[in-house]
Amino acid sequence: MNHRMKIVVLGSALLLGATAASAATASEEAPQQREAAALTGTAKLYRSAGDDITFSFDAHLAAKDNADPTRATGTFEFSHYLDGEGARAKAKVDCLVTGGKVAVVSGVITDSDLPGAEGKRVGITVHDVGRHDRLGYSWAATGNPVETKELPKCVGSAPFEKVRTGTGDFTVVPWRPDF
User: The pTM is what?
Assistant: First the structure.
């Protein structure tokens, strides 16, 4: 191998090594793809009678599932107590649709101390407006989730309830479907 050929080979090897190192660094530094939609956070609702009502969400729609909000995953929980009486429930997410700062999440109750609640689908709507978040739930007109008949996925009520001051920390990641 002549001197000129050695320089070309050596230069090519250095270039390939530098390119591989740059690619590795770029992939480590590249931002991860944003999820398609999300609803997270916990807050207590305001009630003048002093009811202790709490809602918590950990619902996500992966970027790869952007075209199908029924592929959302996660859980949400809620409880309502007054004078030591009430109930709590946990649901597995089966749909998540968000638009701007509003999210509608539905799920099937998997665990509850409210008789007859397990297996029922419920839906909740959240309006993420900072410290003054609002919330609505599918059983608003019936009184409790047990009374709700055959609720479809991704259905909730208008967010009519006020979140107690200092507790609202819901975060909504807006959905951007390809139409």
Answer: 0.80
* Angstrom distance (rounded) from CA 108 to CA 89: 10
Cα 60 to Cα 36: distance, rounded to the nearest angstrom: 8
Taken in order 155, 161, 162, 166, the sign of the CA dihedral is negative
CA distance 151 to 3: 79
Radius of gyration of the chain (CA): 24
Residue 31 amino acid letter: P
Smallest CA-to-CA distance from 49 within 81, 87, 88 is with: 81
Count Cα neighbours of 25 within 13 Å in the Cβ-side half-sphere: 6
| 89 phi, psi to nearest 5 deg | -150, 150
Query: Model confidence over 138-172: pLDDT tens digits?
Result: 999 998 999 988 999 999 999 999 999 888 889 99
